[in-house]
Design brief:
By secondary structure, the protein is mainly beta. It is built from one helix and 41 strands. Strands 1-2-5-14-17-20-23-26-29-32-35-38-41 form a 13-stranded parallel β-sheet, covered by helices on one side. It is globular and about 70 Å long.
Length: 411
């Protein structure tokens, strides 16, 4: 079923959300947005069976200005409300975040306002942490532009998203949100989305499975461009562009497994591609990784038994990275093992005073086959014990592995 909105019917985020809710209640379908340029005062929440579709560059959704509401004092974990010094301008249906100066990550709370009474604000679920007065807790209008929690069979297509970071003094933490964000969801497709300038990350998902991101661009964000995180499994990133982001072009978070990244471009970010704790059985192929401030590909340090292993990088162009920071075009830290780099073209450029591969002495079973390395200080800096001639056996990437690859996820 299609629900095609006119400019009048899509005149506010509240109206669009109502159309999404109504279509989901009727069994699902596509909400078609018109050509328009709309400032959002809240994020758009998708439900199971919903596709949100725009008209490409003609449909622009902009993040509204950020506002900060200090809490009036201490408030504790699990409560579905917060006391504010002032709740002026807030109303039910708005999406907000709560955090303090002590920490972010999963201690940040992202929620939808359910009621406002005086300076008390109700939330649709409990706080994720204790927020103490001494740590300057606040509620902010930081939110994803489009998100879904615990949904299945959803899609976002052909939209232009503007993050408006200059008017948002408080960033959205990457564990709880991004410009486009999914949590505990499956059967996700994002195609033809162009996103930029978000105070936080471009696209992120946590505890998700069966994800396809294709033909999208994420750029000029203050955090990572792309961030599959927290146990997400069986994802495909194809023909995507992630550039000019403050942190990484692509950040594999904890236990992001069975992911394929193919035909993508990661340029002029902090780090190009970063792989870390329990990020295993992943395939990176036919990608361009150029001009990043730090390493082009970084395998982060992780101790046994959560070290990186069983990853395959092939047919990529990795050049001109690590001019300012990092130890090489490809940097592999402790205590990774069973990695295969095959048929890549690696050149130093502005980072030519560093090795093509910098491999920590604790690393084992790295196979380098058919790579073309030039304009680097040396081809590789590694102990002989770290290298092997025969590629380690591994199965990796999207669409590989049986049902056991999902057993760590909620049903």
């Amino acid at each position: 079923m299609d629900r095609e909105l006119t400019v009048t019917e899509a005149g506010s985020a509240r109206q669009i959300q109502q159309s999404i809710d109504d279509l989901a209640a009727a069994g699902g379908g596509r909400v078609l947005l018109p050509a328009m340029d709309l400032v959002l005062d809240r994020g758009l929440a998708l439900h199971s069976g919903i596709e949100l579709v725009g008209q490409g560059s003609a449909t622009v959704l902009r993040k509204g200005p950020g506002r900060i509401y200090p809490l009036s004092g201490y408030h504790n974990y699990g409560m579905c409300d917060v006391p504010l010094q002032s709740a002026a301008g807030l109303e039910p249906g708005m999406t907000v975040s709560v955090h303090d100066d002590k920490g972010r990550g999963f201690y940040e709370t992202f929620a939808t306002i359910t009621w406002v009474e005086g300076n008390w604000v109700g939330l649709d679920h409990g706080l994720e942490a204790d927020y103490r007065a001494a740590d300057k807790p606040c509620l902010t209008t930081a939110y994803p532009l489009i998100f879904a929690h615990r949904a299945h069979d959803i899609a976002v297509r052909d939209l232009t998203l503007e993050g408006n970071s200059a008017d948002n003094a408080e960033a959205m933490g990457g564990c709880r949100g991004a410009a486009v964000y999914f949590y505990q969801s499956r059967g996700i497709e994002v195609t033809g989305v162009r996103e930029r300038d978000y105070d936080g990350e471009g696209l992120g998902f946590q505890i998700c499975r069966d994800v396809i991101i294709r033909g999208c661009t994420f750029s000029s964000n203050t955090g990572n461009g792309l961030h599959p995180g927290a146990g997400s499994t069986n994802a495909l990133f194809e023909d995507c562009d992630s550039h000019s982001n403050g942190n990484c072009g692509f950040f594999f978070c904890v236990r992001a497994n069975h992911i394929t990244v193919t035909g993508c471009r990661f340029t002029n970010n902090g780090t190009g591609v970063s792989i870390g704790t329990r990020d295993c059985h992943n395939l990176i192929e036919s990608c361009t990784v150029e001009g990043n401030t730090r390493a082009g590909i970084l395998v982060r340090s992780s101790p046994h038994p959560v070290e990186v292993h069983s990853c395959h990088v092939r047919g990529c162009t990795i050049s001109g990275n690590a001019a300012a920071e990092g130890h090489g075009q490809v940097e592999i830290a402790a205590a990774a093992h069973d990695l295969f780099f095959e048929g890549n073209t690696i050149s130093g450029g502005a980072g030519g005073d560093k090795p093509g591969f910098f491999i920590d002495p604790s690393v084992r079973s790295v196979c380098l086959q058919g790579n073309h390395i030039r304009d680097c200080a040396v081809e590789f800096s590694a102990d002989a014990a770290s290298l092997v001639d025969v590629a380690p056996a591994m199965e990796c990437g999207y669409g590989n592995g049986g049902d056991t690859i999902y057993r760590h996820l909620p049903v």
